[in-house]
Specification:
165 residues; alpha+beta; endopeptidase fold (from Nostoc punctiforme); 6-stranded antiparallel β-sheet; 34% helix
Length: 165
């Protein structure tokens, strides 16, 4: 099994759990992260409340949150790539675009490729993983957590292959 295959299995498992999004989250176990730490990580009280509401909503729907971790978009991708020894250190969405990908056309994506949003390629602000069939997995935000989304090509500005380095 290739690193790409292992990456896709792991990221789908996280999306299936619907792990929470927290600014600066890099895979910390939710159950071992004190609430004050989450409050410190978030940029505003409003965003902190959104995170709490998301977690409360998942629990009230019967979700087992004991194995959940907290993520932001680049934290999710870099954590998995580091665990698979594809990259050696944490970085941002911009760093992933700059250092760890072979840039490819948005028209020729393969499962496991990374897609990027931003004002331009020098101002990348978001990263997600293409999983095939016009779908991505992303740490979307405080109201959505890590989830499956429809890949709409016009919303993304670049793509890259982190497994071809």
């Amino acid at each position: 099994m290739t690193a790409r295959d292992k990456y896709l299995i792991k990221i789908k498992k996280i999306a299936d759990r619907r792990d929470p999004y927290v600014w600066g989250g890099q895979g910390q176990l939710l159950r071992k992260t004190p609430i004050y730490k989450i409050a410190e990580m978030e940029k505003s009280q409003k965003d902190f409340i959104r995170v709490c509401n998301y977690i409360h909503g998942r629990v009230s729907l019967g979700a087992d949150m004991r194995s959940c971790r907290i993520w932001d978009c680049s934290g999710l991708v870099t954590y998995l790539l580091m665990k698979l020894h594809v990259i050696s250190g944490d970085t941002t969405a911009q760093g992933l675009y700059n250092m760890y990908t072979r840039h490819i056309s948005l028209d020729s994506l393969s499962p496991g490729d990374l897609v990027f949003k931003g004002a331009d390629v020098n101002h990348i602000t978001h990263v997600a993983t293409y999983i095939g069939n016009n779908k991505i997995i992303e740490a979307k935000g405080r109201d959505d957590g890590v989830c499956y989304s429809l890949f709409v090509k016009s919303q993304w500005i670049a793509a890259g292959d982190p497994f071809d380095y």
